[in-house]
């Protein structure tokens, strides 16, 4: 009898070893805050809503609808920490094309491609009938091409809660784009109680210039006690980790807390075989579906003691940074200071070490 039990336990152990999982651990490395009211090439450095890295230089998109632009920068690392940031060039996103004239360019995300071409994501200006868009510009900021947007994402998108973040697919053949908030007919906005708040993450094929897949990610509820009139949560950045696997950044903001109104969490989200492709589903409220699996990796409250004045600012951008001295990958986050229109905010950069270990 004992021999049977031992054989059975050994069998279970071997099965577990064959089901290896990547165990992700994040470690705080550094924070770097730009000085206030910093100008470069006659433009104010601020509103940094997205970031990407080409292996040498970083590209930041500026959320300024009156003067949309890209900033090329060299972020200098010394002993795994940021020693300084040198700005190299400002690329104005404005030409005589019909597309750029007719669309509201409220830029929220940037993806670098070869030959300094960029995919840009704009959330539009919904309250004035300007739809969200995804388009490509060249090294001079001139319009190249655009994607066809699924009708429901255009018609049902809500103001200030439409296209917010993007990431290149692992095979480089497409672009994943995430809504910040819930579209009409899909569910409710995040509340203080248990909530049903799905957002859509859509894959756009570079060759076809249209959407080919779409999956659902479920937002958290709002956690802090209510103090002011604004209490919201949404996805502000995504980054492909592996095929069908993403880092997803949720940012809740609540007024009444001053500079401490942001709650930021980083999740791992995975498209499983059972996850529902919702591309052709008009309303999520009227159907059943299986969302992506999500797993909390880091609540930024855990690192606030390392941050200036304990402030977690309005984090809206994420990219892989350079390899660290120990060979691990780094993640670099950037905040959008909203040009300090609403409160005292910072252009804050945060570096995390990405430790990946095989768990048996």
SSE topology sketch:
Elements: H1 2-18, E1 21-33, E2 39-40, E3 43-44, E4 48-53, E5 58-62, E6 69-78, E7 81-92, H2 98-102, E8 107-113, E9 117-122, E10 133-137, E11 143-146, H3 151-155, E12 163-168, E13 174-179, E14 198-205, E15 210-218, E16 231-242, E17 245-254, E18 262-270, E19 293-299, E20 315-320, E21 329-335, E22 348-359
Poorly predicted ranges: 5-20
| Distance separating the two termini | 28 Å
* Total count of strands: 22
**Rg over C-alpha atoms, rounded to the nearest angstrom:** 21 Å
Mean pLDDT: 92
Q: Helical amount among residues, as a percent range?
A: under 10%
- Alpha plus pi helix count: 3
- Structural class, by secondary structure, is mainly beta
The SSE order reads HEEEEEEEHEEEEHEEEEEEEEEEE
Multimeric state: single chain
Biggest β-sheet strands, sense, barrel: 4 strands, antiparallel
Percent in strands: over 45%
Shape verdict: globular
Structure overview:
The protein is mostly beta strands and 360 residues long. The chain contains 3 helices and 22 strands. A hairpin with a 4-residue loop joins strand 14 and strand 15. The chain is globular, with a radius of gyration of 21 Å. 38% of the residues are buried.
């Amino acid at each position: 009898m004992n021999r049977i039990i031992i054989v059975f336990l050994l069998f279970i152990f071997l099965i577990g070893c064959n089901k290896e999982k990547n165990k992700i651990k994040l470690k705080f490395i550094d924070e770097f805050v730009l000085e206030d009211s910093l100008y470069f090439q006659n433009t104010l450095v601020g509103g940094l809503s997205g970031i990407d890295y080409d292996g040498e230089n970083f590209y930041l998109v500026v959320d300024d609808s009156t003067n949309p632009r890209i900033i090329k920068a060299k972020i200098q690392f010394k002993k795994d920490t940021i020693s300084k940031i040198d700005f190299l060039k400002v690329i104005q996103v404005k030409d005589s094309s019909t597309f750029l004239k007719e669309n509201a360019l409220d830029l929220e995300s940037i993806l670098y491609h070869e030959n300094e071409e960029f995919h840009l994501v704009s959330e539009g200006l919904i309250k004035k009938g300007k739809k969200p868009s995804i388009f490509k510009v060249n090294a001079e900021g001139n319009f190249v091409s655009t994607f066809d947007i699924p009708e429901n994402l255009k018609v049902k998108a809500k103001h200030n809660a439409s296209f917010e973040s993007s990431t290149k697919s692992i095979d480089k053949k497409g672009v994943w784009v995430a809504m910040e908030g819930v579209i009409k007919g899909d569910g409710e906005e995040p509340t203080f109680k248990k909530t049903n708040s799905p957002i859509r993450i859509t894959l756009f094929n570079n060759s076809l210039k249209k959407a080919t897949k779409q999956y659902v990610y479920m937002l958290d509820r709002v956690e802090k006690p209510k103090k002011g009139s604004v209490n919201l949560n949404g996805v502000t950045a995504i980054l492909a980790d592996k095929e069908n696997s993403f880092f997803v950044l949720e940012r809740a903001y609540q007024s009444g807390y001053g500079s401490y109104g942001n709650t930021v969490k980083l999740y791992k989200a995975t498209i499983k075989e059972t996850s529902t492709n919702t591309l052709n589903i008009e309303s999520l409220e009227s159907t059943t579906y299986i969302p992506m699996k999500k797993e909390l990796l880091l609540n930024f409250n855990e690192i606030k003691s390392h941050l200036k004045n304990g402030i977690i600012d309005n984090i809206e951008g994420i990219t892989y940074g350079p390899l660290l001295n120990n060979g691990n990958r780094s993640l670099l986050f950037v905040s959008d200071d909203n040009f300090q229109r609403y409160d005292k905010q910072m252009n804050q950069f945060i570096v995390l070490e990405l430790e990946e270990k095989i768990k048996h």
